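Structure tokens please, single chain.
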Amino acid sequence: MRLDSHQHFWRYTPAEYAWIDARMARIARDFLPEDLRPALAAAGVDGCVAVQARCTLAETDFLLDLARRDPMVKAVVGWADLCAADAADVVARLAQQPKLRGLRHIVQAEPDDFLRRRDFQRGVAAVGRAGLVYDVLIYPRQLPAALDFVRALPDQPFVLDHLAKPDIARGQRDGWDAPFRELARCPNVSCKVSGLVTEAKWGTWRPADFRHYLDAALDAFGEDRLLYGSDWPVCLVAADDYAAVHGLAADWAQRLSPTARAKIFGGNAARTYGIA
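Here you go.
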């Protein structure tokens, strides 16, 4: 099964999606499964993992409802307030939904030491007890805290989103390479090859701009812990269409064995998120 491990759906309102600014007008509209389906079919992708874009329980319920109604949506990474006193009860309730396979918080918008908070770590421990994955969304400056975080919870499976969002437009390597590789040494962490075009020069990037980051990810995580994701529709602010984003990853992976490509473009996501 070929899977896109990271994309979003929403019914757009300016109040709910204030992060979509004037430069991102192209995505200031509704994006639903019927919008994604033709792009996945053209790329030969069988299904997707829908990931939260708002930190509300209503967002989780919205994505789960889409997943119940559309078999293309194989799994959901939702949101819950993991710092709350009742986090364990909320997580246990959400985990009863078969397609809820993970949770995420937009940590990139939080203080750099947020992942070290004891209350948050207690909430994430409940995620693991419920048999769910936790997606880590951070910037490179937060990688040291992420390392402490995943080491504190060695039995919890984690997925690092977007290679921790290195500044590809400026060719950032210092401050990313070393801590990124250190995080990869933790066997409970996988990594999504996703969200890269939005960190590059929008509309003018070239495939060569990503080579260092993709090669580093493969070297650090190996073929068994990399998951392809498009970050659609956010990727459309920086790329012409879904095909351009999928093609970027597929062309880079062409030098790998068929077995490795099958893992990165579906097998690893199916195993990580428990997709049959």
